[in-house]
């Protein structure tokens, strides 16, 4: 199995002293029958329009060409659409296009939504997360809402504050990983969930 994670710097775990981020923690808690390859393909500051322009070429170089390889795509959406001033309609279309191309390529997709950031952006990020969730739902693609459970979570807010209000630390990435692991990750991979605690 080859899993490509495409997204912004949050996908790499920037701000995590252990350098694991949520992706490293999720993979550490996932027991594959055979060794899997995980590729984190992140671009700092990237919005969904920019992601839509590059993801296919970058994943194609890493996905297996033959039928014996299972190719999986994780779309890790960040908060940069807000700063870029993209409309919710444009953000929706960007994700829809990514998921439609992945489906046409017979690549199973999994979407992780944007987590809370600066309080002033809270309403826009919440609206963006809801829009992304709707796009994924319409395509029967698993979606992890990281905004709603973390927006008022004391540990997340404290961790974010320690990181200057932009990036979480170990605790924050741990919370994101827990949400991913408990929102269909194992079933998406066709694996038992008995390892999740």
Automatic annotation (TrEMBL):
Q: InterPro entries attached here?
A: SGNH_hydro (IPR013830), SGNH_hydro_sf (IPR036514)
Q: Can you tell me which residues the record assigns to a coiled coil?
A: none
Every SGNH hydrolase-type esterase domain range? 5-174
Gene3D superfamilies, per database record: SGNH hydrolase
User: Which protein, by its recorded name, is this?
Assistant: GDSL-type esterase/lipase family protein
Give the originating organism: Promicromonospora kroppenstedtii
Print the organism lineage.
Bacteria, Bacillati, Actinomycetota, Actinomycetes, Micrococcales
């Amino acid at each position: 199995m080859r899993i490509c994670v495409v997204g912004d710097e949050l996908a790499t775990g920037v701000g995590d002293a252990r350098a694991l981020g949520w992706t490293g923690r999720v993979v550490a808690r996932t027991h594959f029958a055979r060794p899997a390859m995980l590729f984190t393909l992140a671009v700092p500051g990237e919005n969904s329009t920019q992601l839509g322009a590059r993801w296919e070429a970058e994943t194609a170089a890493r996905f297996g060409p033959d039928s014996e390889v299972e190719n999986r795509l994780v779309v890790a959406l960040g908060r940069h659409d807000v700063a870029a001033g993209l409309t919710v309609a444009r953000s929706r279309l960007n994700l829809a296009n990514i998921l439609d191309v992945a489906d046409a390529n017979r690549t199973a997709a999994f979407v992780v939504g944007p987590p809370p950031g600066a309080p002033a952006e809270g309403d826009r990020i919440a609206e963006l997360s809801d829009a992304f969730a709707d796009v994924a739902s319409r395509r029967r693609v698993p979606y992890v809402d990281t905004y709603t459970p973390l927006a008022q979570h004391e540990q997340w807010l404290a961790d974010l504050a320690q990181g200057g209000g932009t990036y979480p630390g170990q605790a924050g990435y741990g919370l994101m990983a827990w949400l991913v692991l408990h929102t269909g990750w194992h079933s998406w991979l066709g694996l038992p969930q008995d390892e999740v605690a």
